[in-house]
């Protein structure tokens, strides 16, 4: 459960609490410097011994260029004034100008950036052009010209300061504009903004509540960084003689200019003191800005585990419910001695433990696990997020970040890998043990050809000429089934499809005939038909090369398809390991049993039937959606003449692979995307082709549940506010009524009323998706569109959310368009199923017909490619699929 | 169909087409054409902005020569310069002049602005090259060291160094350098000693880049003299830019070092040095180069200050002279020139990016 910070923490700014060590030191040093200068600026008249322009005191002339003395600590200048007093008054000028300039540029730049980024269109283009031109221009030059324009004859102190501030503002407006516009663009595409649009929130409210509140976190950073640039620009203006009139205010840059000739004659005090003042104040502001950036920029933060505490807690909770045990009993059902020790293990882990040192303290990721892999064997390591399955495999190769402590033993044949220096481990990586990664798109370096990258791996281990290595690369690509390998060897990764990229990654993994391949979720990022081909490839490589494979996955179907033996992990420990058939037939540990129960099966006998008598709620007629092509390219047709309808109380499952256009159909239905042609009716009202204003009253008729629960809730709004938003926008209920409604909605998704106060980041993935569901149902819609609502969830969590969903749907009888790539999920809850491919509707019909007796080739292939969580059944399916796939090629 | 060597079925025929662009001209050529096309409106906005600002400032003749000439004489001068005609006509003249390479003539000393480009522009170019060399020599290796020792002592010291370098205005660094070197009689102003400058007047062909001229003349003493003069300004301006490069290289290296393909390269057994040089560094260069392109403006802005500090007679020095004399026709010409240089540089950067990042080319 979430931790509440004690109220004491409110005294310390949160950035300071989030910082640590050196970062905190730099931040505090910066704050101290800035505060010191502000103090000096405020109390300048009391601190300075003389007036800034005074060259005498009590009738006694100071004298020019006098070295530092008791009367004049910093000496006197070429004009015979006291340097210390000028530095102190200069602080006042600088602080005034900076505050004014930063405020002015933020006031102009932020709204422009927000509006331009959010609205887009011609206004955006013109503004970007002008701002880019301003930005490209040497800033000092621009400031000079503006200051000449403004100060023509104006010499007062106030006028001069305003003129200087405005000159600097003109320079910095483009910076705010750019930063805010870019942030707006990225926030604009966040699902929570879409979610707000779906319920009919008006643009000003979206800008204020959803965009600005999330964009504004970057303001302190640019504000402080601009402050330091403002000081430098002001000093530059003064130095060149375009600053504030010298008689009106003391200014450091002007003093430095006057001191320049002194430098050659060894008079240092006239220049060094004002110069140091500039350096220190800029240093202070920059330190604050940089440290803020370091602390707030998630890209630069040291991370520990990938899952949040709430996710851990949720899985733990499920675990307890399923097993009745508060913690894991480490109990290998199949003791290592149990199965026959045929050969020497290729890779053998004993008591492997991994701990991360994070900002929040020590985090145990892996807690003493032991298992072996024999040559030619496929061992699947399964578990939900946070189980430590990936971490343990990376520990073997020494690929964890330096914040990880690894103990125990990992033996490769006779060699102990742990504790090896990275120098002696390097020759083994890729040669004896190699890895296949989850996301082929990021595992390949985008700036080198795939051939170059394969050759690099070969040359790291073998004395082989470039030419021979390249020939070998072509051979390897052919081996992994890359079409046209001789040509594709010189392709860059972005020129290949996802499946082809994963083939390249596998080619690299087998390049040196390794003893062990560690495949970390090798097919999770791929479509199901591509997954089938890649799994096939891995198996045939195992058969041919006798490689041991450690397959890390969360997909039970993949396990049934591939594994000889299965290791089930939960929170860093192994709860069960057994041969695959035994594990699926008779799981020994309650967690394994529950995990297997939670996996949806394709081919259920008693799924939902038809509801043909109810009235039609959603009617999509001949829908076409096209996206404009990039400059000089034809438009891309995402949806191609699709017609379908959904009745009251009916769930239509819309399935297809990535890029099939299924999500576009959903988004067009709720007006997030305009159709190119065709019509959409909801409850008899046409919703396509309407303006936002015309559509708004109709929006209460439909709800939308987004794929990623993490990003479809505005992180700055509480759960209660998120759920209440549709009510605020669409109804004129009193606040008390709204509160009551929110509480009852939370109740209906099985979250207590106490959740209303919490923020999305304090919730687990499953809880957040329940909140999304509650928000979508807030207005009692006739139609619910659910776009991959459970694909980001772990399997046991998914099972619970689907159960809840089905129950609510039965009770409230809304029509539902359920979009998913997972045929098994659709099979559990859809009355009818529609299959899409390349924007076209391939097949539509009752669930048991489409999924049980498909008519179209594509549907057949799609269904054949889904691995089912049953080894015997899967073996049979594989044989059949082999025929199907050969038929095609 | 497939050979015996092929162990696995092909990807299903319809599974995700490779992202090859459909038809059309060579992608690289198209990319560059698009960039060039985008440059045109930006240049237009820039030069128009200059024109408008210069008209807002007021009557240039009055500003430059007012008080020294009678009202009649000023009116005559205005007619001569065409300033009494409608503003749109003047704007048209100005634009068409630019196309012919005619940037106008100064009011106070009747110089062709294009002549200023040849003489003073060469001086700025020389300073820019020297200081870029310093900036690269400082920024890139130190940035790599900082990234490599992230959050350890060298990183901390280098970050403080880069912030300090950034926090110190270039004219203050110049002043400190002058203070430090003046006692040794090190030259701290001008581009060369007077004797050298006089000698180099006669170099044929004359490039106005002192270093090249000195080499053409062939006297090592002159080359040494020119280098000595260039050293302090180059360090002052180079440190400023180098500090920015250092931070850029560090941050981008840190970000690429946590990419999957870096882990993947390590998992293939690629040596750490190679991972750093080939995988992390080259990828980190793409954003670094982009931002470096924007630094051109900073460099030019810094050059104005550096040139004033060291009396280096470049574009910036000349510009601030004319600004002080309120010779706005000269200012207009020079500022337009600078705008064109900025535009040309941003196009050059795009070309460089295309060579570093294949995703742009294919």
Topology (elements, then pairings):
The complex is a heterodimer of chains A (889) and B (362).
Chain A: H1 14-18, H2 21-42, H3 44-47, E1 56-57, E2 60-61, H4 83-119, H5 121-136, H6 139-151, H7 157-188, H8 191-198, H9 203-215, H10 219-240, H11 252-264, H12 269-296, H13 309-323, E3 347-358, E4 361-373, E5 378-382, H14 389-396, E6 404-412, E7 415-416, H15 422-425, E8 433-436, H16 440-443, H17 450-461, H18 466-479, H19 485-488, H20 498-510, E9 516-520, H21 528-545, E10 548-553, H22 556-562, E11 565-570, E12 573-579, H23 580-585, H24 590-598, E13 616-627, E14 636-647, E15 651-655, H25 662-669, E16 677-682, E17 685-686, H26 692-695, E18 702-705, H27 719-730, H28 735-748, H29 765-776, E19 783-787, H30 795-812, E20 815-820, H31 823-829, E21 832-837, E22 840-846, H32 847-852, H33 857-865, H34 871-888
Parallel strand pairs in A: 5-10, 5-11, 8-9, 9-10, 15-20, 15-21, 18-19, 19-20
Antiparallel strand pairs in A: 1-2, 3-4, 3-6, 6-7, 11-12, 13-14, 13-16, 16-17, 21-22
Chain B: H1 27-57, H2 60-65, H3 71-81, H4 87-99, H5 113-148, H6 153-167, H7 170-181, H8 194-200, H9 210-217, H10 220-257, H11 260-267, H12 272-310, H13 315-324, H14 328-356, H15 358-361
Helix pairs in contact in B: 1-14, 5-6, 5-10, 5-12, 5-13, 5-14, 6-10, 7-10, 7-12, 9-10, 10-12, 11-12, 12-13, 12-14, 13-14
């Amino acid at each position: 459960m979430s931790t509440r910070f004690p109220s004491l923490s409110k005294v310390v700014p949160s950035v300071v609490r989030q910082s640590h060590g050196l970062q905190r030191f730099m931040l505090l040093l910066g704050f101290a410097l800035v505060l010191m200068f502000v103090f000096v600026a405020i109390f300048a008249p009391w601190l300075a011994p003389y007036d800034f322009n005074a060259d005498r005191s009590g009738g006694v002339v100071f004298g020019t260029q006098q070295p530092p003395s008791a009367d004049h600590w910093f000496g006197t200048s070429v004009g015979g004034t006291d340097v210390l007093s000028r530095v102190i008054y200069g602080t006042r000028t600088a602080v005034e100008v900076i505050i004014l300039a930063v405020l002015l540029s933020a006031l102009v730049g932020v709204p422009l950036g927000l509006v331009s980024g959010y609205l887009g269109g011609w206004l955006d283009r013109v503004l970007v052009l002008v701002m880019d031109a301003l930005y490209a221009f040497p800033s000092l030059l621009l400031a000079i010209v503006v200051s000449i324009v403004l100060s023509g004859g104006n010499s007062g102190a106030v006028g001069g300061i305003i003129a200087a501030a405005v000159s600097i503002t003109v320079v910095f407006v483009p910076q705010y504009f750019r930063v805010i516009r870019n942030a707006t663009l990225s926030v604009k595409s966040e699902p929570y903004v879409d979610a707000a649009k779906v319920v009919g929130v008006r643009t000003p409210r979206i800008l204020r509540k959803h965009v600005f509140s999330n964009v504004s976190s970057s303001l302190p950073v640019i504000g402080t960084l601009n402050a330091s640039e403002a000081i430098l620009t002001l000093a530059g203006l003064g130095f060149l003689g375009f600053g504030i009139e010298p008689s009106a205010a003391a200014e450091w840059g002007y003093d430095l200019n006057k001191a320049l000739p002194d430098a050659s004659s060894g008079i240092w005090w006239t220049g060094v003191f004002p110069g140091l003042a500039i350096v220190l104040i800029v240093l202070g502001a920059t330190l604050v800005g940089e440290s803020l950036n370091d602390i707030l920029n998630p890209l630069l933060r040291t991370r520990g585990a990938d899952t949040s505490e709430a996710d851990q807690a949720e899985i733990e909770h499920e675990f307890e419910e399923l097993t009745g045990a508060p913690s894991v009993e480490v109990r290998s059902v199949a003791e290592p001695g149990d199965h026959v020790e045929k050969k020497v293990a290729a890779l053998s882990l004993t008591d492997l433990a991994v701990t991360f040192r994070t900002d929040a303290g020590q985090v145990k990721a892996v807690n003493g696990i032991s298992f072996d892999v024999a040559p030619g064997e496929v061992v699947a390591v399964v578990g939900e997020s946070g189980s430590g399955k990936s971490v343990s495999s990376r520990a073997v190769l020494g690929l964890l970040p330096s914040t990880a402590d690894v103990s125990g033993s990992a033996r490769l044949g006779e060699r102990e890998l742990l504790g090896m220096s990275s120098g002696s481990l390097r020759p083994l990586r890729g040669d004896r043990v190699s890895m296949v990664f989850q996301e082929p798109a990021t595992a390949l370096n985008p700036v080198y050809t795939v051939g170059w990258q394969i050759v690099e791996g070969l040359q790291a281990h073998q004395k082989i000429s470039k030419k021979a290595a390249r020939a070998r690369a072509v051979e390897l690509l052919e081996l992994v089934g890359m079409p046209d390998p001789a040509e594709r060897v010189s392709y860059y990764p972005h020129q290949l499809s996802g499946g082809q990229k994963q083939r390249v990654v596998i080619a690299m993994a087998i390049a040196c005939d390794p003893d062990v391949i560690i495949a970390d979720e090798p097919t999770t990022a791929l479509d199901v038909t591509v997954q089938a081909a890649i799994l096939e490839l891995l198996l045939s490589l195992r058969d041919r090369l006798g490689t041991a494979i450690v397959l890390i996955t969360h997909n039970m179907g993949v396990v049934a398809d591939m594994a000889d033996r299965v290791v089930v992990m939960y929170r860093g420990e192994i709860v069960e390991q057994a041969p695959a058939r035994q594990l699926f037939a008779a799981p020994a540990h309650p967690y394994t049993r529950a995990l297997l129960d939670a996996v949806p099966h394709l081919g259920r006998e008693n799924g939902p039937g038809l509801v043909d008598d109810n009235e039609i709620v959603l009617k999509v007629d001949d829908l076409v959606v096209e996206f404009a092509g990039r400059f000089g390219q034809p438009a891309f047709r995402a949806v191609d003449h699709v017609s379908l309808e959904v009745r009251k109380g009916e769930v239509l499952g819309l399935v297809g692979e990535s890029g099939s256009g299924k999500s576009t159909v959903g988004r067009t239905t709720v007006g997030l995307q305009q159709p190119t042609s065709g019509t959409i009716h909801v409850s008899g009202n046409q919703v396509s082709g309407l303006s936002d204003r015309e559509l708004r009253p109709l929006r209460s008729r439909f709800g939308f549940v987004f794929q990623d629960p993490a990003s479809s809730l505005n992180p700055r709004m509480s759960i209660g506010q998120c759920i209440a938003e549709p009510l605020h926008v669409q109804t004129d209920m009193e606040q008390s009524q709204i509160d009551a409604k929110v509480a009852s909605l939370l109740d209906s998704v099985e979250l207590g009323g106490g959740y209303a106060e919490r923020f999305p980041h304090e919730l687990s993935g499953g809880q957040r998706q329940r909140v999304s569901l509650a928000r979508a149902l807030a207005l009692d819609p006739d139609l619910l569109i659910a776009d991959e609502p459970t694909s980001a969830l772990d399997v046991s969590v998914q099972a619970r959310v689907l159960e809840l969903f089905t129950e609510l749907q039965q009770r409230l009888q809304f029509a539902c368009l359920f979009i998913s790539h997972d045929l098994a999920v659709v099979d559990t809850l859809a009355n009818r199923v529609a299959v899409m491919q390349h924007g076209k509707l391939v097949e539509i019909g009752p669930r048991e017909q489409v999924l049980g007796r498909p008519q179209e080739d594509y549907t057949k292939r799609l269904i054949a490619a889904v691995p089912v969580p049953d080894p015997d059944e899967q073996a049979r399916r594989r044989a059949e699929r082999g025929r199907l796939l050969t038929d095609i090629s | 169909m497939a050979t015996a060597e092929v162990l696995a079925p092909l990807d299903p025929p319809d599974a995700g087409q490779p992202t090859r662009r459909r038809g059309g001209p060579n992608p690289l050529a198209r990319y560059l054409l698009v960039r060039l096309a985008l440059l045109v409106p930006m240049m237009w906005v820039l030069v128009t902005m200059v024109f408008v600002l210069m008209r807002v400032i007021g009557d240039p003749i009055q500003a430059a020569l007012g008080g020294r000439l009678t009202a009649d004489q000023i009116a005559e001068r205005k007619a001569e310069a065409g300033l009494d005609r409608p503003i749109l006509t003047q704007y048209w003249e100005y634009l068409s002049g630019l196309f012919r390479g005619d940037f106008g003539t100064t009011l106070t000393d009747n110089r062709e602005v294009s002549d200023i480009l040849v003489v003073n522009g060469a001086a700025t170019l020389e300073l820019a090259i020297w200081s870029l060399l310093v900036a690269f020599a400082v920024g890139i290796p130190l940035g790599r060291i900082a990234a490599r020792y992230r959050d350890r002592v060298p990183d901390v010291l280098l970050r403080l160094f880069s912030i300090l370098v950034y926090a110190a205005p270039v004219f203050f660094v110049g002043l400190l350098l002058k203070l430090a070197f003046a006692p040794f009689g090190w030259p701290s102003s001008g581009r060369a000693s007077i004797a050298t400058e006089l000698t180099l007047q006669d170099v044929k062909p004359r490039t106005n880049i002192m270093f090249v001229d000195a080499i053409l003349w062939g006297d090592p003493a002159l080359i040494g003299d020119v280098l000595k003069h260039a050293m302090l300004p180059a360090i002052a301006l180079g440190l400023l830019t180098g500090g920015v490069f250092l931070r850029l290289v560090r941050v981008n290296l840190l970000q690429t070092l946590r990419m999957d393909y870096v882990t993947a390269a390590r998992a293939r057994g690629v040596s750490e040095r190679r991972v750093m040089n080939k995988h992390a560094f080259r990828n980190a260069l793409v954003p670094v180069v982009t931002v470096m392109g924007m630094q051109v403006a900073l460099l030019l802005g810094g050059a104005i200050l550096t040139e004033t500090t060291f009396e280096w007679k470049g574009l910036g020095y000349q510009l601030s002279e004319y600004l002080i004399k309120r010779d706005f026709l000269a200012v207009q010409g020079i500022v337009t020139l600078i705008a064109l240089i900025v535009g040309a540089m941003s196009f050059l950067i795009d070309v460089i990016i295309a060579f570093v990042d294949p995703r742009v080319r294919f």
